[in-house]
Write a structure and sequence with these properties.
disordered N terminus; M1 Pyruvate Kinase, Domain 3; five-stranded antiparallel sheet; 102 residues; mainly beta; 34% strand
């Protein structure tokens, strides 16, 4: 199912952390990346700059850990990608499964 969503860098309208597992991001003419999970931040962030780990981790109202470091994916189809390329979001078939830390 192709979503009516488009990730446009000018609007940044798609919350990648909320997309379901196996969502495909079609980038430019040929590249396709399939989302596999949430990026699990590690201590390397803190070594790079103090405070980065705290910036990408928080807790929700129930105390559950929220990761805001981005998503992980696999390249399904390679291609040349340009900064101005459109990114189309293709949702997987139902039922949707949330991204989990990998």
């Amino acid at each position: 199912m192709v979503a009516s969503l488009c990730y446009d860098r000018r609007h940044r309208g798609t919350d990648q952390l909320q997309l379901p597992r196996k969502t495909r991001l079609c980038i430019g003419a040929d590249a396709v990346v399939e989302l596999t999970g949430l990026r699990n931040p590690c201590v390397q962030l803190e070594r790079f700059k103090a405070g980065l780990m705290a910036a990408v981790l928080s807790r929700d109202a129930q105390g559950r850990l929220l990761r805001k470091a981005g998503v992980m994916g696999i390249v399904v189809s390679g291609g040349v990608v340009y900064p101005e390329d459109r990114i189309d979001v293709v949702l997987p078939d139902l039922p949707h499964r949330p991204l989990e830390p990998v």
